[in-house]
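From the pipeline queue, job 12 of 40. The input is one protein chain; the requested action is below.

Action: predict structure.
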Amino acid sequence: MAVYSGLVPDALDFATGRNVPRGHRYVVTRPATAAGFLFDDPLQAGKPQKVLWVVGTPRVGPLTIEARHHDGGPSSQVARLESGALPGEIYPSSFQLPRAGCWELTLRWGSFEAKVDREFTEAAR
């Protein structure tokens, strides 16, 4: 999945209360109802990673994130984020994945679901 930099689409800017974190690369989910601004870039396995999730719909309850490694195996919930952050439709997160590789992250909030695939590298020692 592509990682973007520079200007963000107007819908994302609006969803953050016009407070998009400038200078951070970001990913867009499928469908394009959410985006994640990468505060840790590149993402690394084995240590907490900070991502600011922005949803393009009103926040309804918590956001849960499940992760599944592309080589199979069961998915596991890596984060449950409450909807109290301001401004805008945002969910700050910090989560850790156990190993490097390509992971599919499934985001759920209210009746909405979106997915994004991201590569996590080995953490520098």
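Job complete. The chain has a mean pLDDT of 86.
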